[in-house]
Structures are given as structure tokens and as C-alpha cells.
Design goal:
Strand order of the largest sheet: 1-2-5-4-3
Structural class: alpha+beta
CATH superfamily: Beta Polymerase, domain 2
Distance between the termini: 33 Å
Number of domains: 1
Order of helices and strands: HEEHEEEHH
CATH architecture: 2-Layer Sandwich
Strand content: 15-25%
CATH class: Alpha Beta
Radius of gyration: 13 Å
């Protein structure tokens, strides 16, 4: 399963605060959002490299990636799973978990 593969890649890279948001039946953009933090821009970039390597080993050679040069927020579109990697302060600013949760749970 793609989600488990990507979670394992993030765990192996010592990603922090890994969260998964199930989008099935809620959005057509993907089945899941996988969100994680790295302690620095260098670690965020290294985590992105791990994710892309895991995808390549599974046959996904051309995966769209945004933000890799700065390492503040990297987005990897793996098809069924969209991966967001952040430095902690950037993650707190955008708070995707709250945004996506509020959009679907009826609150706000």
C-alpha cells in the first residue's frame, strides 16, 4: 500500500508529528494527505528525498514536487497520496490539519 510505504520512509528519516488525513469520499484530489515535520530545511529536503526514492523504487519515476529548493514546505504529489513536509513554524502557520478537518467535520 502506497500510504504505508510513504509513512515508513518518513519514519525511517525521523520525521516528526506524522499525520494522515483520509480524503476518500471527501475530495477527488487524492485518497490521503500525509503531513510531517522536519526540524530544519535540510531535514525536510532529506525527508523529501526519502519519499521520492521510495516512490521511484515502486516505479513512480516522475513525481511532481514543489518547494524542494527552500525546504520550508515541500509538496509531493504521489497520486493517491499527497505528501506535505514542513519545518515546524511553517506547519503551524498553515495548519493544514485544521483546515482540512474543519472543511469536513461540520465545525466552523
Amino acid at each position: 500500500m502506497l500510504l504505508a510505504l510513504l509513512q515508513a520512509a518518513l519514519e525511517d528519516g525521523k520525521a516528526e508529528d506524522i499525520a494522515c488525513i483520509d480524503l476518500r469520499g471527501k475530495s477527488s484530489i487524492a485518497d490521503d494527505l500525509l503531513i510531517a515535520s522536519g526540524r530544519s530545511a535540510r531535514q525536510v529536503a532529506a525527508l523529501a528525498d526519502r519519499v521520492m526514492e521510495a516512490l521511484a523504487q515502486r516505479g513512480h519515476k516522475r513525481v511532481p514536487v514543489e518547494g524542494l529548493k527552500t525546504g520550508d514546505w515541500v509538496l509531493i504529489d504521489a497520486g493517491d497520496v499527497i505528501v506535505h513536509l514542513f519545518r515546524p513554524e511553517i506547519r503551524a502557520r498553515y495548519n493544514l490539519e485544521k483546515m482540512w478537518g474543519a472543511a469536513f467535520d461540520g465545525s466552523e
